[in-house]
């Protein structure tokens, strides 16, 4: 029944997905010039309604007063940073024009800051503190400036002096932030030591948030075998420099880096990363997005990422931009992906909402996203849609533990997009908080959350056991007393022999002897395998019976293993594909091992290899079915037990294969290892040869058919 239920759910989900995809694609394309995606609990990319929609374009028409008192057009030129203060006023580091542009919340020019008494030179970073003081990373002049709200110079921070900073240190500030204490955090171009931290007086306090050094496997091998002199000659491994920085209202600092394991980091006051091993590409399917919506690059190879900026809004939602692919992505406070979107840049006039070269971004009090484009020299403004706002609120309430309040938003999201599977996880947490564990169990399965599924099942199992404990105790008592009485009764009575078929007649059936020999091999593998070759114990019939039993157990494991230990989407398991792959591997092994054994003077016949390989799979039959059934009464807290017996089953089969090769081919241990390695290599070569033949055959058939069409026409 469970298998049929999953198949029915899979068919329904496929039909619903098709309908939703067609409708949402038409609707989304009619409203916004890009596609929006998310990731479900099974790490599959899914379509969603737009989370943000284009609002307006700012900083496109800037007019300043020249020396003659006339208003002249003065567009941005390669701007590099954007900052929005507490009043929603916008500051832009207009790097190419050596100035700071100050706009009001509507995008009207308020002033331009050039600092005539100490002119700016390629300013690349901005930060406005709560007092309204303006901090500028004046990259060309290798300094950081602090101005008051009127634009007057208060202090200048040059290269810090410290014993930890030598003469070769390059100090070129590109981005800055200031925390509540007044500590200044400076990102310097190419600095691998990390963020430069200054105290409120401008004295060097230390390096902060340094990236880890990425060492390849070859680097580790060199460290083991190379001498100190050889290691000194190698190129020194240095951490990747930090690209940009931001800070939230709770004091957590966010950094982004290029081409490192921890591309996005959330750092606490001690410099510890709260998002360990988090990488931008882990959640976002760049290949999928680019093939779907982003203009393809002419370069070959895997897609590259170049995250240039990060910002955190008032709700703690983290937004990053990838300049290489013009992708915008949002994450919640725990680093879970909410959305990502992008669109190809078309020739001609730029589209509203589509960035060409996003270099910086920030958010205002209304959670609008302002994206600075250094190629188009303007600011794109995106505002949240109702769908995006509901999801943000639902995630925030869930993270704060307000599950009852979040349930309303999750249900609203489900009405808008019934296939948005992260909503199932939110509803499951709400059901779990209400102690409705049955509903939570079903919702966690739909959400792909095996931990939540396991916790819900644990509660259900505990409740069931508490209700039925008295029955178990009484049954145990009755069984104990009955066993004692029964043992005494059996001692007094004689067992009658059956007249229909004697036990000796069963022992004379050859098939049963062969099947019994398969179990004998489990106790005495070397002797049992040798008897297949030299005593003709075992035949094709018994081998096929064992293979059939293994197939039945494999199908049982596929469809009846608990979701706790097999967290895959409903209906995604394809028994036919699993059996086909298993059959191809097993048949390839039998053929290749027999041929390699014949070449290397082995003594096994094809029949021996076939039967021995089948008998070696017997542990799957013995342990596979009990494991599948037991998984339905186990939780993740017992995963070590489940994992132990699963590993035991695999190791047992591998050991039987090893002893089979050794006994049937009459090899030593070393010869057995070499034979197995050669057999595996020949299997790979066989598959490659088959693929080549199939490819050439299809090409030949197409050529003959095309030639036939030409001749007949």
Question: Would you give an account of this structure?
Answer:
- This protein is α+β, with helices and mostly antiparallel strands.
- The protein has 20 helices and 27 strands.
- A hairpin with a 6-residue loop joins strand 15 and strand 16 (195-198).
- Helix 6 packs parallel to helix 8.
- The model is unreliable at 1-30, 292-300 and 494-506 (pLDDT under 50).
Describe the protein's topology.
Blueprint: H1 2-31, E1 35-39, E2 45-48, E3 52-58, E4 63-65, E5 71-73, E6 81-84, E7 90-94, E8 99-103, E9 109-113, E10 123-128, E11 134-138, E12 143-147, E13 153-157, E14 173-178, E15 184-188, E16 195-198, E17 204-208, H2 217-225, H3 228-233, E18 242-247, E19 253-257, E20 264-267, H4 280-283, H5 286-292, E21 307-312, E22 318-322, E23 327-331, E24 337-342, E25 358-363, E26 369-373, E27 378-384, H6 386-399, H7 403-416, H8 422-433, H9 437-447, H10 450-467, H11 469-492, H12 503-507, H13 510-523, H14 525-534, H15 540-560, H16 575-599, H17 606-615, H18 618-630, H19 639-665, H20 669-712
Antiparallel strand pairs: 1-2, 1-24, 3-27, 4-5, 6-7, 7-8, 8-9, 10-11, 11-12, 12-13, 14-15, 15-16, 16-17, 18-19, 19-20, 21-22, 22-23, 23-24, 25-26, 26-27
Helix pairs in contact: 6-7, 6-8, 7-8, 8-9, 9-10, 13-14, 13-15, 14-19, 15-17, 15-18, 16-17, 16-20, 17-19, 18-19, 19-20
């Amino acid at each position: 029944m469970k298998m049929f239920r999953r198949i029915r759910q899979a068919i329904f989900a496929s039909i619903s997905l098709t309908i939703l995809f067609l409708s949402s694609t038409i609707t989304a394309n009619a409203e916004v010039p890009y596609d929006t995606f998310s990731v479900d609990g099974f790490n599959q990319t899914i379509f969603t309604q737009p989370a943000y929609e284009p609002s307006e374009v700012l900083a496109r028409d800037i007019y300043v007063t020249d020396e003659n008192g006339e208003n002249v057009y003065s567009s941005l030129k390669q701007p590099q940073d954007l900052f929005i203060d507490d009043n929603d006023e916008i500051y832009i580091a207009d790097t190419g024009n050596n100035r700071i542009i100050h706009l009001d919340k509507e995008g009207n020019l308020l002033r331009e800051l050039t600092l005539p008494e100490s002119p700016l030179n390629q300013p690349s970073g901005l930060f406005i503190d709560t007092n309204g003081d303006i901090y500028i990373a004046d990259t060309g002049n290798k300094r950081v400036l602090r101005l008051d709200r009127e634009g007057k110079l208060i202090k200048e921070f040059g290269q810090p002096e410290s014993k930890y900073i030598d003469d070769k240190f390059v100090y070129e500030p590109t981005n800055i932030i200031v925390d509540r204490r007044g500590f200044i955090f400076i990102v310097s171009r190419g600095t691998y030591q990390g963020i430069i931290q200054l105290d409120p007086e401008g004295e060097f306090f230390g390096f902060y948030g340094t990236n880890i050094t990425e060492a390849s496997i070859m680097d580790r091998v060199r460290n083991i075998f190379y001498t100190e002199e050889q290691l000194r000659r190698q190129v020194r491994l240095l951490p990747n420099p930090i690209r940009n920085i931001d800070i939230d209202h709770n004091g957590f600092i966010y950094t982004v880096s290029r081409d490192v394991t921890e591309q996005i980091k959330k750092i606490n006051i001690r410099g510890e990363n709260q998002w360990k091993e988090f990488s931008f590409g882990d959640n976002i399917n760049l290949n999928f997005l680019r093939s779907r919506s982003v203009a393809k690059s002419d370069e070959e190879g895997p897609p590259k990422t170049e995250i240039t900026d990060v910002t955190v809004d008032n709700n703690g939602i983290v937004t990053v931009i990838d300049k290489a692919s013009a992708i915008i992505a949002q994450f919640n406070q725990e680093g879970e992906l909410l959305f990502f979107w992008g669109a190809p840049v078309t020739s001609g006039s730029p589209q509203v909402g589509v960035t060409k070269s996003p270099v910086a971004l920030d958010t205002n009090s209304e959670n609008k996203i302002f994206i600075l484009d250094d190629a188009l020299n303007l600011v794109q403004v995106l505002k949240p849609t109702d769908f995006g706002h509901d999801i943000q609120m639902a995630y925030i309430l869930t993270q704060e533990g307000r599950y009852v309040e979040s349930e309303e938003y999750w249900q609203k999201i489900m009405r808008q997009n019934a296939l948005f599977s992260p909503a199932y996880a939110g509803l499951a947490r709400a059901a779990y908080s209400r102690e409705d564990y049955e509903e939570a169990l079903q919702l966690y399965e739909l959400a792909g959350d095996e931990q939540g599924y396991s916790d819900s099942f644990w509660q259900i199992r505990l409740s069931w056991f508490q209700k039925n404990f008295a029955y178990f105790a009484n049954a145990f008592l009755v069984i104990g007393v009955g066993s004692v009485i029964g043992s005494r009764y059996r001692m007094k009575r004689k067992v009658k022999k059956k007249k229909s078929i004697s036990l000796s007649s069963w022992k004379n059936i050859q098939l049963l002897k062969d099947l019994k020999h398969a179990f004998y091999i489990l106790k005495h593998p070397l002797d049992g395998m040798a008897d297949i070759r030299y005593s003709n114990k075992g035949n094709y019939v018994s081998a096929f019976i064992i293979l059939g039993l293994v197939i039945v157990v494999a199908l049982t494991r596929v469809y009846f293993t608990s979701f706790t230990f097999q967290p895959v989407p409903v209906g995604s398991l394809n028994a036919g594909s699993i059996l086909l792959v298993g059959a191809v591997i097993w048949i390839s092994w039998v053929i290749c091992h027999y041929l390699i054994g014949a070449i290397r003077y082995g003594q096994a016949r094809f029949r021996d290899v076939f039967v021995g390989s089948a008998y070696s799979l017997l542990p799957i039959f013995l342990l596979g079915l009990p494991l599948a059934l037991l998984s339905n009464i186990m939780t993740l807290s017992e995963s070590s037990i489940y994992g132990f017996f699963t590993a035991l089953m695999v190791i047992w089969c591998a050991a039987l294969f090893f002893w089979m090769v050794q006994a049937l081919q009459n090899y030593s241990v070393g010869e057995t290892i070499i034979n197995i390695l050669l057999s595996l290599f020949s299997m790979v070569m066989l598959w490659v040869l088959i693929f080549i033949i199939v490819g050439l055959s299809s090409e030949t058939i197409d050529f003959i058919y095309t030639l036939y069409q030409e001749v007949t026409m």
